Amino acid sequence: MSSTKEYRFKYNPREKVFYDEWVASHESRRGKSHTTLEYLLAVDPNKPMGECTDRDDDVAALVIQWLGSPVGVSFLRDCGFVPKEEL
């Protein structure tokens, strides 16, 4: 899994935080258990059967990274979430 938008990390460090956390949690489960994404994409969420592709991994990572962008953070605020530093 890799970010197709790594160049954005320099200007939007929060995106890197979101991306790095997703990758760490995703990779820590790989091989031991199914990942969150595998459960989300499974036809039967109780029995993931490998429905998750590399492209699915990349798209999910990009969406998670986007949540750390200024527009993504604004979206989260609109949903009622507030960054820790603003509490």
Summarize the structure.
By secondary structure, the chain is mainly α. The protein is built from 4 helices and no strands.
Task: Describe this structure as you would to a colleague.
It is globular and about 40 Å long. The termini are far apart. The chain has one domain (6-86). It is 53% helix and 0% strand. By secondary structure, the protein is an all-alpha fold. It has helices at residues 13-29, 36-41, 54-67, 70-78. The longest helix is centred in the N-terminal third of the chain and has 17 residues, at 13-29.
Give me the secondary-structure topology:
Blueprint lengths: L12 H17 L6 H6 L12 H14 L2 H9 L9
Helix pairs in contact: 1-3
What would the keywords be for this entry?
mainly alpha
Shape summary: globular
Tally of discrete structural domains: 1
What's the overall average pLDDT, rounded?
87
Note the beta-strand portion. Answer: under 5%
Secondary-structure class: mainly alpha
Order of helices and strands: HHHH
N-to-C CA distance = 33 Å
Helix percentage range: 40-55%
Number of DSSP E strands: 0
Instruction: Please state the CA-atom Rg, rounded to the nearest Å.
Output: 14 Å
**pLDDT < 50 stretches:** none
Largest sheet: none
- Counted by DSSP, the helix tally is 4
- Oligomerization category of the chains in this entry: single chain
